[in-house]
Design a protein that fits this description.
By secondary structure, this protein is of the alpha+beta class. 47% of the residues lie in helices and 22% in strands. It contains four helices and three strands. The protein has a three-stranded mixed sheet, sandwiched between helices. Strand 1 and strand 2 form a beta hairpin. The chain starts with 6 loop residues before the first strand and ends with a helix.
Length: 93
Amino acid sequence: MMNEPIAIIDVEITEDLRQARVYWTLPYSVLLMDVSSDVRARAIKRMQTILEERGGVLQGIVHQKLRSYYRAPKIRFVTAEGEMLRSVLKELL
């Protein structure tokens, strides 16, 4: 379970290309584990904090790749939930 990557499920970019939402989830193996929703919620909260603190690395890569073409969008990390997450898990099973 340790050292497994999170999964990026989807990315939405606004029409003006100024903002991007990156929808992520815990590793699939963690989602499929039989643990309480409280344990999963704490793991999600901790990962969200890490992404907010260290997500600037990804922001920098995007900026570096796009700066000669566009103003790079500001990236916001969002936990995938509900139907979005269910449909991805359904495809796995």
